[in-house]
Every structure is written in C-alpha cells, then in structure tokens.
Amino acid sequence: MKAGTRNPTSSGGTPRRRDYDRRRKKKRSVARKPGRPIWRQPVLLGLIVLLLGLGGGGGWLAWKQGWLATAQERVAEVSHRVVIALTPFKLADVTVEGRDYVTREAILAALNVKAGDSLLGIDLQAARHRLEAIDWVASATVERRLPDTLYVTLKERRAVAIWQNGNEYTLIDQNGRTVRASRMPPGADTLLLLGGPGAPEHVGDLLLLLAYEPYIAKQMRAAVWVGQRRWNLILKNDTEIRLPEEDAVAALQRLAKLDSDYKLLSREFGVIDLRLPDKLYLRKRGSASDTPSPEPTKTAQSKV
Q1: Residues 143, 124: contact at Cβ < 8 Å?
Q2: What does the pLDDT read at residue 192?
Q3: Residue 37 within any structural domain of the chain
Q4: How do 240-242 and 230-235 pair as beta strands?
Q5: N or C: which end of the chain has fewer CB within 10 A?
Q6: Are 45 and 37 in contact (CB under 8 A)?
Q7: pLDDT tens digits, one per residue of 217-228
Q8: Separation between Cα atoms, residue 161 and residue 39, nearest integer Å
Q9: Model pTM score
C-alpha cells in the first residue's frame, strides 16, 4: 500500500459515508399549495351573485306589479274558506242596539257579513272601525254571541236641530254634521228648525249664543242663517228677532232686559230688530211692510 493513499475506513473500523450518500437520503419535502374553497371558485361565485340578483329583482318586480299582494289575498281567501268550512258556528242573526238614525243597510254594509259566514272568521276590530266611519256613529262595539249571533252596540250622535233646505229636511248634530235618516227619531218635533244656506256649519255658535239666555231659547221655534253672517230667531208666537252680525250676545241680553221690564216678547210686535247697537226697531204684526220703519225708535225713548 502506498504511503499517499488514505484509508477509507474510520478509526473505529466503520466505512466513512460520503457526501453524495447524505444528499441522496435527504429528500426535500415539497410544500403543496392548499386548494381554494369551493365558494371562492370564480365561476361558482359568479353564479351565486347572478342567482341572488335574479331573486332580488324578481321579488321587487313581483311587489311592484302587485303579484305579491294578489298572492297574499288569495292565500287569505282560501284560509277564510277553510275556516268557514270547518267551523260549526255559522252566522244566522245580527242584533243592533242603540240605533235611531243610522239605516240598517249602512250597518250591514259596514259589517260586511252575510248569513252562513263563520263567526270565528269575522274581524271584529275591522268591523268596529268601519261602523265608526259612519257619520252618525260616535262609537261602536261588535261581539260574537255563540252559537250564531253578531251583537252590535251603537252610540249615536244626538240631533239638536233639523235643517230645512228647500223641500229636504236633514238632521244636524251639535258639530254641524248632517245625515239623511231613514226615519225621524223620537222627539224630532221638539228639535229646533234651521234655515238658510250654511246654517249647519254655524249651529254650534247658535247653541252657545242661546246658552246665555235660556229663557229666550225655550221660546224659540226656528233660526235662519242670513247672508252667511248673522241669525234671525223665530219664536213660537212667530215673533222674529233680527240679531246683529257683531256682538249678538249683547243684543240678546239687551232683549232679555227689555222683555223683563216691558214684556216685549208677549206684545203685539211681529219684528224686533236689534241689528244696530244703540237703536231698536219694532214692527207690529200684520204690517204690510217687511222692512223696519225708516225712522227708528231709540231704545231709551221706546214706549213699550
């Protein structure tokens, strides 16, 4: 063995591993790239966005065209028919309490029911609201009374006057609301008779005016709204009292004082004109003229 040759073995007798053996056994691990989630795939994501857009657009179009409302109405109608078919409680009678002015037809139209309808399927709150929309109804209640009755209680507004408009007579409440009743209520002959265009709108002011002098109010038979600005009062003895446009309360109080002092209302005068604050015009019954004398009598000088 030549002196320059190296021993291939180590000092322990184990052959020495060469570098290429180490490189062979060291295998580099290649890191795999994780795959994309399915929902992040471009094509699938585009399809999802498209479907959502079509769904939202279709819903908006259905709402815009009324298809959604129509579908809801049909479902409600079918449900109502199912309830009617299954329920044992069928409507046979409608009982109304407290009706004087409102017509039977108006009540039935507001209830919107017919014989054979299901009592359980009737919307009581909606029926009550429709009844209270009738002009002459102040409040209403609607109840089911099993097995077959719908019970309605009405609180009507009270009439305070009858308005004569040509040949037509209309009941008036204290707020000036009018109604054409199917029949006159009990005691209608004692109601105040109103005349003149626009009289119902001013009946509240008239009632307030008469409250200052109840004695004169008890003697009244009618009141006429003149020229859209003032009242003429007609007493039961046909005496006509012409009130001023301004400060009618003071004029009526002045008349009450004159009647207390001189029994003016029970005398032979057919017209008592109070339109001027410091003068009193009087005209006897049966006078040919319909207007006061051009020479008025002052209140202080009147011989009554």
Answers
A1: yes
A2: 93
A3: no
A4: antiparallel
A5: N
A6: no
A7: 999 999 999 999
A8: 79
A9: 0.58
For the record, the structure tokens of 86 come out as: 């299954």
Q: List the CATH number of the domain containing 114.
A: 3.10.20.310
Residues 164 and 147 in one domain: no
Tokens describing residue 187:
């005691």
pLDDT of residue 39: 47
Q: Is residue 2 part of a domain?
A: no
At 5 the pLDDT is: 47
> 275-283 long-range contacts, Cβ below 8 Å, gap at least 24?
275/230, 275/242, 275/243, 275/244, 275/245, 275/251, 276/244, 277/244, 277/247, 277/250, 277/251, 281/242
Beta bridge partners of 173: 159
- Please state whether beta strands 149-156 and 93-97 pair in parallel, antiparallel, or not at all (unpaired): parallel
- Beta strands at 159-165 and 192-195: parallel, antiparallel or unpaired: parallel
From the list 154, 153, 189, the residue with the least C-alpha distance to 171 is 189
Nearest to residue 202, comparing CAs of 238, 248, 235, 240? 248
* 140 three-state secondary structure: strand
Over 50: is that where the pLDDT of 74 sits?
yes
Are 240 and 114 in the same domain? no
Rounded Cα–Cα distance for residues 13 and 15 (Å): 6
- The DSSP secondary-structure symbol of 60 reads H
